[in-house]
Amino acid sequence: MLSMLFLGGCSRASSAEHQLIVTGSTTILPISEVAAEDYHTLHPEEDVLVSGVGSSAGIENVSSGTSDIGTSSRELKDEELDLGLVDTPVAYDAIAVIVNPSNPVTSLTTAQIKAIFQGKITNWREVGGLNLPIGLVNRDEASGTREAFGKIVLDKQRFDPTAVILPGTGQVRSVVAQAPSAIGYISLGFVTDDVKAISVDGIVASEKTVVSGEYPIQRILHMFTKGEPTGLAKRYIDYVLSADIQNSVVRDAGFIPITAKAVNGG
Amino acid sequence: MRDMKRITNAAALSVFWFAGLTTVVLLGAVILYVFVNGIGHINLAFIFTRPHGVNAEGGIWPMIVATLYVTGLAMLIVTPIAVLAAVYLAEYAVQGRLVRTIRFAADTLAGVPSIVMGLFGLAFFVEGLGIGFSVLSGALALSFLMLPIVMRTTEEAIRAVPKYIRWGSYGLGATKWQTVSRITIPAAMPRIITGIILATGRAVGETAVVIFTMGTMIFTPVLPTDPGRSMTVHLYQMAMEGINLPAAFGTALLLMVMILFFNLSARWLLRRNRRMQG
Amino acid sequence: MAEGLRPDPMPEEREATALSVRGDAGTLKLVSKATYFKEAALKNLFLACAFMAVAAVALIFVFVGYRGWPVFTEVGASNFLFGREWLPTQDLFGILPLFVGSIVVTIGALLLGTPLAVGAAVFLSEIAPPKVRSVVRPAIELLAGVPSVVYGFFGLLILRPIVADLTGGLGFGPLTAWIILAIMIVPTIATLTEDALQSIPNGIREASYAMGATTWQTISRVLLPAAKIGIVDAIILGMGRAIGETMAVLMVVGNAPGFFRGMGKPLSTLTSQIVMDMPYASGLHRTALFGMAIILFLVSMGLVLTVRLLSRFKEEGL
What we know:
The complex is a heterotrimer. By secondary structure, chain A is of the alpha/beta class. Chain A folds into two domains: 4-92 and 221-263, Periplasmic binding protein-like II (D-Maltodextrin-Binding Protein, domain 2, 3-Layer(aba) Sandwich); 93-211, 3-Layer(aba) Sandwich (D-Maltodextrin-Binding Protein, domain 2), CATH 3.40.190. Chain A has nine helices and eleven strands. In chain A, strands 1, 2, 3, 4, 5, 6, 7, 8, 9, 10 and 11 form an eleven-stranded mixed beta sheet that branches. The longest helix of chain A is centred in the first third of the chain and has 14 residues, at 29-42. The model of chain A is unreliable at 1-15 (pLDDT under 50). Chain C has a domain at 101-285: MetI-like (MetI-like fold), CATH 1.10.3720. Chain C is built from twelve helices and four strands, in the order αββαββαααααααααα. Chain C has helices at 12-19, 33-82, 96-127, 130-143, 148-167, 174-198, 202-210, 215-226, 228-244, 247-252, 270-277, 283-315, and strands at residues 20-23, 26-29, 86-87, 92-93. Chains in contact: A-B, A-C, B-C.
């Protein structure tokens, strides 16, 4: 997540029927932000204000009423289950493990990745790379990507506490793009040519491998509302789920339409 | 022996020259770096349009509005209080425990880390008083930050007014308040304004305070209760997200130009005033 | 403040002169009662304004303290202050590593920045030709106004990759923070030190030169000792700025909440951790962040107090 913010002041603004406050995951921003702009173009009288504050803050905001929709790139935690939040899955996403393009390593197993992020493997040599200390790049605790990655890859065990912690996806990408020794993880949608996504257990992350379930590090992107979505919140969510957004915006952003799998991601 | 002394002297002096020049070069490098990278991105569209999309393409108009709004409001809030407080300290106060306490409080306030001020603003204005994330909360928190600065510069300005001017006023039968309001403050006005401008410049560059009081929402605030995102917060977010670096440089440059403008106008005012006083 | 510096030493008697004149024939009223009350009311209004500073400090302390207090009672002061692990998700709120981080970052910045700043101040005050001085001094003052987030941005994009090459890590860590903070505190320390040097009467310099001392001897044996307390003040204020600096540090320090492990290894500080955690913190975690803020508040207040005591020292003639 970027950095800050709980948007208290907005709750007042959003009580006006024509303004919708959406806060939460920065991963989902490419969908929520672009959809908000397109929605505003279609319905100029209605405003959707989107702010990337991290999944945890988004869930906190929607449950406390300071925003109308909380977006999250992770599932609800146990203690969040009884907040009365209604989940609308909006897309699938893979979390890509990225290294510098100059790094000869192209494939790692889940076990190796786990050991690397726990600080048990500290040199690229140990996984068939150069003799170079591994530069671990981790995300902050508010990040839904970190939560999902920790759950899937690390079995909720502890990350190496000495890793660099960066508060933004783009920042992880640019550091990995510059440093030959670095390894990090970002949403597949954010992978560019500056960095190299390595295959996990021999599987390259793609829409196909995510839909088939072969690529192991995948998750669902959510929009949460307090109770069933109504009014503008419902119109906006319906718009996000429409074929217009799903097939263009979601795909363009590198995510996988929620309609691609015939599974209900609850 | 004599040579030794001369050599030591020359060596020492060159070290000081080095220190002086290094300082200038280092600081100049920061400015130049931002200038060179940012200048190409600044144009009317960048200043006057809204950002759009994930990469914050487009302009930074909402951030400029929010920044000027919050600092302008803070200035309006702080000026009367700080100026009158300075009048008290310079004209009325008797040295004693009370004045010592006030001065100590002002110094402490000036030293409070901005992040602490930000959390205080969050706890008190945003949540405690229920003002919410808004320009008003931000301005109130910033006014706490500006208060000691404006107080100090105003007090110095008032003290710098020659006392015979006051005696003249009293001699004509003016009361204290008449003297202060019609003689002392007008005479000190240019320097008071200089202090206010400098404090406002400082507030423009503030990040940690406004991030917790005004929010990070990209929004063009109209009412004081609207949230907004300052230019500093915008720069921070873009830098940390690693997105759209050209726009980040543009924002940084515009921010520095604004602060430079505040500082130079304060300086200009001061110099003009000095010249007028002979 | 010395009495001589005040243009208008105006204790109560002088105030009286504005309103009435005391003579042999008793008090001669010059103004009406209404005017007198108006004057008194205004004076009290001004006093109230001046008291705002006190009220502000008290409010900050009370509100931040109130929010932070539960961490002292529920986690315990010693677990909080001396706990060695900052793991909010597992309810471990030990801020010792963060506190140490703040100190490491501050001290390194002071070690790098102070010699440069004092050197620059001596240069400006004693050595630079007037023309150079008239350009450099305002330039340094202007640079004190550059926002910290701009310094952080510079550090992130320019310094970090350089430090990464030097230390073999990713460039996030104390070394980068030291350099950036040193650059940031140089204007603060330099301008205050120069003020201290400038306040030394010229006669002292002339006396030194008259004895045949070189410029260096005058600086090192006469001027620097004479400006000692002013310089210490400047360094303490620079220290306050460094320890409270948030955004620039946050952007380059790496934010790993562990103990110092090397110049190029990520670290976290009290200030940067507050900004990292605040957006999502709730419950006890949130109170812990306010608890950290109150610690920062007390530290900065302690520094101001030290400066006060030093200046009292100075007034009493060392």
